[in-house]
Write a structure and sequence with these properties.
- The complex is a heterodimer of chains A (130) and B (124).
- With 130 residues, chain A is α/β, with parallel strands linked by helices.
- Chain A has one domain: Hypothetical Protein Ychn, Chain: A.
- Helices cover 36% and strands 20% of the residues of chain A.
- Chain A has a five-stranded parallel sheet, sandwiched between helices.
- In chain A, helix 2 links the parallel strand 2 and strand 3.
- Chain A is globular.
- With 124 residues, chain B is an alpha/beta fold.
- Chain B has four helices and five strands; from the N terminus they run βαβαβαβαβ.
- Chain B has a five-stranded parallel sheet with strand order 4-3-2-1-5, with helices on both faces.
- Chain B is globular and about 40 Å long.
- Classes of the chains: A alpha/beta (130), B alpha/beta (124).
Chain lengths: 130, 124
């Protein structure tokens, strides 16, 4: 079956990000197709490249990035939700005159149209939120 | 679900009031974008989300834009299927006359059918 994931809460705030990650891994392990993971609302914080959790805790940002790379799962971040929360990739940072950037590949900033496309294209869109 | 309601692509469920969080705004944003891409969208206001439809809202002191202006634009986006949860209306003591847009009240028993009839359901 073809799945998509929508994550609406920040890492380390609630169970949502952990559950979404574990569910996505289980889908891939079960031989399903994951068409994409979309990060919206506070979920955009999962793309924060500067996240530095204690070493004895799961690194959710790195875990998403690894999953995205290893399984070629697109990690799409709503650009409007991201920008207002301080999550900018290199291009957006330059455009807004910011010194640093906080989002890097495999995460990609994209529009909400992608969420709708993703949801309508796959068999199941599973939402994880607070 | 009533026979005259056409099936739509996307059901956006709005359960949060306008000013306490960005849930309502970000939920409506998905609806507008989907409509702009010619998807047929139904909005279902449930619980406190119904208060988004109350007349006479202002932006407020926090500098938020509020959502009333967005709701007023829905018609321009051809989003005319606006549903409110009947139970939520009753619990909040609201009548349809207090709302800024024409809505259809839906009973609890109709909601499973709504969920089943839309290809994509997003819950905010």
């Amino acid at each position: 079956m073809r799945y998509a994931i929508l994550l609406l809460d920040a890492p380390y705030t609630s169970q949502a990000a952990h559950s979404a990650l574990r569910f996505t891994r289980a889908l891939l392990a079960g031989g399903h197709v994951v068409d994409g993971v979309f990060f919206y609302h506070d979920g955009v914080h999962n793309a924060a490249r500067l996240a530095a959790p204690p070493q004895d805790e799961p690194h959710l940002v790195d875990a998403w990035a690894e999953l995205g790379r290893e399984h070629a799962v697109p990690l799409q971040v709503c650009i409007a939700a991201a920008l207002r929360r301080g999550l900018l990739d290199e291009k957006e940072a330059a455009r807004h005159g910011k010194q640093g950037f906080s989002v890097e590949p495999p995460f990609e900033l994209t529009g909400l149209g992608q969420l709708v496309d993703l949801g309508l294209r796959c068999d199941r869109l599973i939402t994880f939120g607070p | 679900m009533q026979d005259e309601t056409p099936p739509a692509d996307l059901l956006v469920i709005l359960r949060h009031a306008p000013h306490g969080s960005s849930w309502l705004k970000e939920g409506l944003d998905v609806a507008l974008v989907a409509a702009a891409f010619d998807r047929r969208v139904t909005l279902l206001f449930m619980g406190e989300g119904i208060t988004a439809l109350l007349e006479g809202q202002q932006a407020g002191p926090l500098g938020q834009k509020g959502t009333a202006a967005t709701l007023a634009m829905l018609e321009m986006y051809d989003i005319d299927s606006l549903l409110v949860e009947e139970r939520g209306m009753d619990e909040l003591g609201l009548t349809s006359e207090q709302l800024m847009l024409p809505v259809r009240r839906v009973a609890d028993a109709e909601i499973p059918g709504l969920l089943a009839d839309h290809a994509l359901v997003l819950n905010f």
